[in-house]
Design goal:
Structural class: alpha+beta
Helix content: 40-55%
Strand order of the largest sheet: 3-2-1-4-5
Number of helices: 4
Radius of gyration: 21 Å
């Protein structure tokens, strides 16, 4: 499970909007943020709102420090949906266009049908990702409420498999 600490900013209907803790630099998973490409991109594009809605399984209230989690498999499935369908559409469209091309059309048929397949793949990926079942599978959830400790800063690290 991928975990991230945060603070509950809003609660409604069994969900909590959690403001993720972290520095400007990327994922905050290691101490190499000064030399990390992700950190450099984060500084270049500036800070964005790093909050998300999570199922409030732990019963957190506004102001609580919490740990939110997302199953690795859910993240992998979402990434596969987002990247595989458009790529498959592009490849299939290009191959079909190349096979159907008449002499003299050059690569134009493959390019046009490839782009058509790419856009069709994007539509399929958006449809699959937007389904209620997909949203339910990939929604983060509040795993636990952390004890209040005003003297210490919120821990920020990526934790895998429950190890620290």
């Amino acid at each position: 499970m991928i975990e991230q600490a945060g603070v509950v900013a809003e609660v409604r209907a069994g969900e909590a909007r959690v403001q993720a803790a972290g520095s400007v630099g990327g994922c905050s998973a290691c101490s190499a943020s000064g030399g990390c490409g992700t950190a450099a991109l984060a500084r270049f594009f500036g800070r964005r709102d790093r909050s998300l809605w999570a199922r409030n399984d732990a019963g957190a209230t506004v102001g609580d420090r919490v740990v939110i989690g997302l199953e690795e498999r859910a993240l992998q499935s979402a990434a596969l949906t987002a990247y595989a369908w458009p790529l498959l559409g592009l490849l299939a469209g290009s191959i079909i266009g190349d096979l159907a091309a008449t002499p003299g059309t050059g690569e134009l048929a493959g390019i046009v049908t490839g782009l058509t397949g790419l856009f069709a793949g994007i539509v399929v990926a958006r449809h699959r990702a937007g389904s209620a079942a997909a949203r339910q599978r990939t929604q983060a959830r509040v795993i636990r409420v952390l004890p209040a400790s005003p003297a210490s800063p919120m821990p920020v690290r990526a934790m895998h498999g429950g190890t620290s």
